[in-house]
Structure formats: structure tokens, C-alpha cells
Amino acid sequence: MSVSKLLEKICTKLGNNNKPTYVVMAIATVKGICRPIFTMMDKKENPETKKYTAIREGLTEIIAIPVYWASGELAGKLAHVLAKPKNFMDKNLYKQHKKGHVTPEVAKAFDSAKELAENNLSKMNKNLMFIGVCAAALFVIPALCSAAIKPLMNSIQKKHSDNKKHLDINTLEQPSVLMYAPNFQHNDNLKYLSSFHKTPVGGMKVGGV
């Protein structure tokens, strides 16, 4: 199969069976990949800020993708509940149908309502999916991100801060006096350290001081 035929087949299938969940999941996937990359490419931003922003953006989309799918599919299931003949039929005629009073008028009304329900099932399914993904974007995803990402980022920042403090303490420059001690022999056991402080310090004097 040629590339053009393959693309035509994919596009035809998506066109015949497209869903709002596919669109938002595709957008979330692209955002989850591209936004962290673009953030890290910003040379004007602080490296630490870039790193945490990229992590946060990536985690947000990782959470968003399955939530979009679940919300859309669950909302779409309601179409099977709403697309019933009774919802497309006059209430009095439907009551007669339920009671078994099948007159020509009732039978015709029921058949027409059943046909409308079947024809509108797909449209209702996609519309409800759209409502579901919108609800996910407005309420569900922000709530989950606030509950999951914020504590995680705070933990990462706290750990980084503790490590930085630890490194700062260990890398403090201690004043070295060994370089000023003439004829001082370094010993691993530092057994001459007590006598070293009594060693006179010599060297060039500036300004006659």
C-alpha cells in the first residue's frame, strides 16, 4: 500500500468516526512534548525556573490525556440513555404505547420516534463527549493537578533546596595557612599542626610595614 493510499484510509476512517476525545488527546500530547522543549530552549530564563516549569507542564499533560479520554467516554455513554424513543415521542402517545393501546396512530408515532432516536444517537454521543472533555478541562484536570502536581513540585523544590544547602556547606572555602608556612612538611596525621602556629611567617613586605 502506497503512502498516499494509507493516508487516505486513515483520514477517511477518522472522518467517518471522529470523536472530540481524539482531538483533545492529540492536542494534549503535542503540548506535553513541545511545551517543555520550548521552555528549556529559552536562553533568557533561569535554568532552575526552566526545569521546574518544564516538569510541571509535562506532568499536567500526562494527567490531562487519560482524564480527557475517560471524561469523554463516560459522557458519551449517556447518549444511550437519552436516545430513547420516549424522548422523541408525544408523552400521551408513549403512555398509550406502554399500556399496550397500539392504535395505528400510536404505532406510527413510536416507529417514527425510534427512527429519530437511532439517527440521533451518534450526534448525541459526540455532543456529550464534547461536553465531557470541556468539563474535564474546566474542573477535573485543574483539581487533579492541584492535588497531585503541587505537592510533588513542592517536594522536588524542597529536596533541591536541601541539597543546595548541603553543597554550600561542604564547598565553603576554608582559609588555608599551609601556603604561608615556610619549610612546613605536610603530614596526613597533621602531627605538626600544634607547632605550626608558632612558626614565624615570612615573605615580602609592602610599603615598609
Structure write-up:
With 209 residues, this protein is mainly α. The chain has a domain at 20-155. 72% of the residues lie in helices and 0% in strands. It contains six helices and no strands. It has helices spanning 3-16, 20-40, 47-82, 91-99, 104-170, 193-196. Helix 2 packs antiparallel against helix 3 (47-82). The longest helix is centred in the middle third of the chain and has 67 residues, at 104-170. It is elongated and about 85 Å long. It starts with a helix and ends in a 13-residue tail after the last helix.
Sequence of secondary-structure elements: HHHHHH
Give the low-pLDDT segments: 176-181, 189-209
Q: Tell me, what's the shape?
A: elongated
How many H/I helical runs?
Answer: 6
Residue share in helices?
over 70%
Distance between the termini: 93 Å
How many strand elements?
0
Main sheet? none
Query: Residue-averaged pLDDT, rounded?
Result: 79
Strand content: under 5%
What is the alpha-carbon Rg in Å? Answer: 36 Å
- SS class: mainly alpha
